[in-house]
Every structure is written in C-alpha cells, then in structure tokens.
Amino acid sequence: MYTHLALLRGINVSGHNMIKMDALKSALENIGFRNVVTYIQSGNVFVDSEEENGPSVGFQIRQEIFKAFGHEVPVIVIGKEDLEACLKNCLYIKEPEADTKKVYTAFISKELDAGAMNDLKISQFKPDEASIDGSRIYIKYAVGAGKTRLDQKYIEKKLNVTATIRNWNTVTNLLSMFEDRNL
Fold first, then answer.
1. How far, rounded to the nearest angstrom, does the alpha carbon of residue 57 sit from its chain's CA centroid?
2. Of the candidates 29, 37, 35, which has an alpha carbon nearest to the alpha carbon of residue 48?
3. What pTM was estimated for this model as a whole?
4. Alpha helical stretches, state H, 126-167
5. Contacts of residue 10, Cβ cutoff 8 Å, sequence gap at least 6
6. How far apart are CA 65 and CA 79, in angstroms?
7. At residue 57, does pLDDT exceed 90?
8. What is the DSSP annotation of 15-79?
9. Residues 148, 151: Cα–Cα separation, whole Å
10. Residue 122: per-residue pLDDT
C-alpha cells in the first residue's frame, strides 16, 4: 500500500469549484482509495492505494472529481519525500528572522531544468524572491501572496506546467500528517 498526497488546485476559492471535503472523501473511497483524509478546505487529500505511480493516482482523482462534481480540477500528487525536501532545501526559512508567513512552495507537475529560473524572469518581481528545487519553487513574498503577480497563473504560463501553491504553515502541517500516517 502506498500513501499519496493529492494537492488539488483551485477548489473552494472565492466561491468557485466548491467541493465539500466529506463528499470528496466519500467519492474517493467509492473508487477504491483507502484511509482518505483531507486537510483544510483548499484541497489537500491523503489517500492510500495499491498504485505506486503518483501521476496515475492524480489522474484517477481528477477523473472522479469531474464525474462526481463536474469540476475540471488539476491535481498534483506528491510524496512524503517532497515535503521533507521543502524543509531541507528551502533557504528562506533558514534565514535569520525568517517570516514563515511570507514563504510559500509551488508544487509543479514536472521537474524543472536550470533554465526555468530565467524563464520566470524573477527579477521583475523584486523584492519577491524565488528558487527552484526540482519540481518545487520556493517563494518568499516581500509583502504577501495577495499583493504580487508572481502567482500560480504566472508560473504556469511562463513554464508551461501545472502548479499549485501552499503556504509554509500548510507544508509543515502536511508533513506532520504524513509522519503520523506512517507510524
């Protein structure tokens, strides 16, 4: 049995793509996922499956969401190691007096190459900062996520990927939940 974390993009945001977490849990259990647990309303779903391949699990979840709720929702599936890499590799949380309320992680649908940083043209967003780590982009907002153009839509457009962003508090809570599941 494999544990996966599905990050759903754009549900329950400003009245769009509304999905009750209890209904989502039931829908995913009905197609064979086990130990389905959701975390907050923004679409973080743990599932256990016989399927090892994360993208395959994401495809199944995406299909079921469309079938059950009529919403076309991008899904990125990650593992515990992705969250552990965030804690290990995000330089912004290691800075003296780091403000974790301004640190976010964008989870990306594919590994990014070294040229992706140039494609993002991050210098136009200063004083916001970003760094790439495989299929993750760590972002430190100078003012806050609501006051920047360096967002999920911009990342997707510039890099031709699917992306979903989580704040640092959510990243650390999801890792804690992963660890609790694997006790």
1. 15
2. 35
3. 0.91
4. 152-159
5. 16, 17, 43, 73, 74, 164
6. 21
7. yes
8. TBS---HHHHHHHHHHTT-EEEEEETTTTEEEEEES---HHHHHHHHHHHHHHHH-----EEEE-
9. 7
10. 80
